[in-house]
Amino acid sequence: MRTDLKAAQEVVELITGGWRAQCLYTAVKLDIPTLVEAGHRTDEELAEVTGSEIDGVHRLMRLLVALRVFEGDGETGYRNTAVSELLKVAPNSLRDMCLLYGEEFYTAWAFAKESITTVTAGFEFAFGEPLYQHLGNNPGLSERFQLAMKAGNLFFDHVPDAIDVAGKTFVDVGAGPGQLTAAILGAVPDARAKVMDRPHVIEVARENLAASVGLDRVELVGGDMVDEVPSGGDVYFLCRVLAGWSDEAVVRVFENCGKAMAGPDSRLVILDRVVDDENPTMLPSLWDLHLLMTNGGRHRSLADYVTLLDRAGFTVERVAELPAETTAIVAAR
Fold first, then answer.
1. What are phi and psi of 263, to 5 degrees?
2. Which helix (H) or strand (E) element contains residue 135?
3. pLDDT in tens, 124-166
4. pLDDT band at 329, cuts 50/70/90?
5. Whole-angstrom distance, CA of residue 154 vs CA of residue 8
6. pTM
């Protein structure tokens, strides 16, 4: 029987996906997108400025041209494409995300079999300690992690279109570096924000918000969302913060939000990817496994959230789809 060539090609592409990812990582580690922008465009020029062998640079760039990361050739010169433009040293770059995923997270994924068979984070197999403990022990890596998470939130600018916060006070629970808050305040001039995270993270948010939208419409609160959340909010956002928590802890967070709400018109909004067992799609399914590899967490289904919200006294009012296969779940008490 002849081999199904189309299926075989798909198998080869799946098997070699990690190679392509590491080639992209190598180009970013060498800052090639930034160097091309600065005028170092031939194999010889890139080899000289990166301290590399010309042959190695040529072979790397040939593949990345085939992948449409760059255009051109090693003699007449390479040019950035829309993809490599996002990987330069620049504001809103995906560079830190590429470096983190190409180093620590790539190492964690090397323990995929152990992680999946034991439902234990691959990161712990790789580094001997949980992700967040490791970040706490490595400040430089922690900063890169925060920048990578910030870069990966491609849907933030679309949240004000899906959730009305005009003239309202919203609470960003587990705000991280404050990027969601900055996106909303930048788009809605009469909105106000209460930003909550653990005290050491709040200081990062304070710095980022002061540099972007200012602090005149922001109240910063340090604390633990499982214990308490700021009171008086019209909208409570829980953005990509629930995946690593148990169902019991998530219900407590929902209950805390319900107790803290300004009134009956207040809403709870969950922003996250949701998995679907009947019709699975790529990003939620892939990131669900990535959470297992990194911190032992998981993505939940819409039905899971409906159940947990019901336990906390909430009813799902509507569901809105956002870019990057992200879902907004709006709940009322």
1. 180, -170
2. helix 131-137
3. 999 999 998 998 899 889 888 877 887 777 899 999 999 999 9
4. very high
5. 33
6. 0.88
Q: What is the helix (H) or strand (E) element at residue 34, kind and residue range?
A: helix 32-37
Candidates 81, 71, 204; CA nearest to 146 is 204
**Amino acid letter for position 135:** L
Domain 5-85 CATH assignment equals 1.10.10.10: yes
Q: Which residues pair with 171 in a beta bridge?
A: 194, 236
Structure tokens at 69: 């990361």
Which H or E run contains 7? helix 5-15
Q: How long, in residues, is the chain?
A: 333
With cut-offs at 50, 70 and 90, classify the pLDDT of residue 11.
Answer: very high
The end-to-end CA distance of the chain, in Å, is: 61
Report the CATH superfamily, name and number, of domain 154-284+292-332: Vaccinia Virus protein VP39 (3.40.50.150)
